[in-house]
Design a protein that fits this description.
Bound molecules: NADP nicotinamide-adenine-dinucleotide phosphate
Helix content: 40-55%
Radius of gyration: 18 Å
Largest sheet: 7 strands, parallel
Number of helices: 8
Structural class: alpha/beta
Order of helices and strands: EHEHEHEHEHEHEHH
Strand content: 5-15%
CATH topology: Rossmann fold
CATH superfamily: NAD(P)-binding Rossmann-like Domain
Number of strands: 7
Shape: globular
Length: 251
C-alpha cells in the first residue's frame, strides 16, 4: 500500500492496536479518521491534531453505520484506505449447563458482520480511488484456536477465509486487500491485565514491525505477519498443529 498521502478510516481507533496504527499513519503524513463508541477517547486522541478526526460508530447499531458512511461520503470523498480493526473478545464455557449464545452473537455481530457491513458501505467509494486498500485485523488465533475463546477464534478464521475471497474478487478493480493477524499484544482486549501481561507483545513494538513490513511490501499473499505470528501461522503446514493446539490448550 501507499504509505503517505492517503485518507484512512480506522475502526477501533480509540485504543490498542487501532489507536497505535492511527498514530503511526498520521505521523507518516496521512489524513486519518478514527472511529469507536467512546466519544471521550475520540476527543482526547484527536485534540490539537489537524488531519486526525474522530467519528462515533457502534458496529452493532445499523443506524450508526448508516450515519457514519453518509458522513464519510460527504466529508471525505477522497477516502482510499479502510482499516477494519475493531473487535471484541470474550471467553465462553460451552461445557456448563447454562451456556447461552449471547456473547457469541455479540462477537459475530462486531467481528464479522461489522467488517462486512462497513466494507459494503465503503467499497463503492474505494473502488473509484487510485491506490485503494482494505486491511482487516484478524488474529493468529485464526490459525490455531484457543478453546476458551471459541467464537472469537472462529470469527477470526472467518475473516482469514473471507479476505482471501475478497482479495481475489477485487484483484482487477483494483483494491488491495491485506490481513493483519496479530499475535498476543498488550492491549485491554480481554481486560486491564492483558495490557501489562509480560507474555504479550508491547503494542508499539507490534505496530512498528507492521509498519516496516508494509513499507517494504513484505506481505506475501496479502498477509502481514510479524515474527511472533509464524509459529501458529505455519503450524499445520509444518506438521506441528496438534502439538501447538495442545500447548495452547493445556488441561
Ligand atoms: N490484543 C491482542 O492480543 C490481539 C491479538 C489478535 C487480534 N487482535 C485484534 O485486534 C483488534 C484491536 O483490538 P485491541 O487488541 O487493540 O483491543 P482494544 O484496545 O480493546 O480495541 C478494540 C477497539 O474496537 C472498538 N470496538 C469494540 N466494539 C465496538 C463496536 N461495537 N463498535 C465500534 N467499535 C468497537 C473499541 O472502541 P470503543 O470501545 O471506543 O467502541 C476499540 O477501539 C481486534 O479486532 C482484535 O480482535 C488483538
Amino acid at each position: 500500500m501507499k504509505m503517505t498521502g492517503n485518507t484512512i478510516l480506522i475502526t477501533g481507533g480509540t485504543s490498542g492496536i487501532g489507536r497505535a496504527l492511527a498514530e503511526a499513519f498520521y505521523s507518516r503524513g496521512n489524513r486519518v479518521i478514527i472511529t469507536g463508541r467512546r466519544q471521550s477517547r475520540l476527543d482526547e486522541i484527536t485534540a490539537g491534531q489537524p488531519g486526525l478526526s474522530g467519528m462515533p460508530l457502534d458496529l452493532t447499531d445499523p443506524a450508526s453505520l448508516v450515519r457514519l458512511s453518509a458522513d464519510i461520503r460527504m466529508r471525505f470523498p477522497e477516502l482510499n484506505v479502510f482499516i477494519a480493526n475493531a473487535g471484541i473478545s470474550r471467553a465462553e464455557d460451552m461445557s456448563t449447563g447454562n451456556w447461552k449464545t449471547s456473547d457469541a452473537e455479540t462477537i459475530i455481530e462486531t467481528n464479522i458482520l461489522g467488517v462486512l457491513r462497513m466494507t459494503a458501505a465503503l467499497l463503492p467509494m474505494l473502488k473509484g480511488q487510485p491506490n485503494a486498500t482494505i486491511m482487516a485485523t484478524s488474529s493468529n488465533l485464526a490459525f490455531v484456536p484457543r478453546a476458551d475463546f471459541p467464537t472469537y477464534c472462529a470469527s477470526k478464521a472467518f475473516l482469514h477465509s473471507w479476505l482471501q475471497s475478497l482479495r481475489h474478487q477485487l484483484r482487477n478493480v483494483p483494491v488491495e486487500v491485506l490481513e493483519l493477524a496479530p499475535p498476543y499484544v498488550q492491549t485491554e482486549l480481554t481486560g486491564a491485565q492483558q495490557a501489562i501481561d509480560p507474555r504479550a507483545m508491547p503494542v508499539d513494538a507490534y505496530v512498528s514491525e507492521v509498519m516496516q513490513l508494509l513499507e517494504r511490501e513484505q506481505h506475501l499473499r496479502g498477509e502481514v505477519l510479524v515474527e511472533r505470528d509464524r509459529d501458529r501461522r505455519w503450524a499445520e503446514r509444518e506438521g506441528r498443529y496438534e502439538a501447538t493446539f495442545a500447548t495452547m490448550n493445556l488441561g
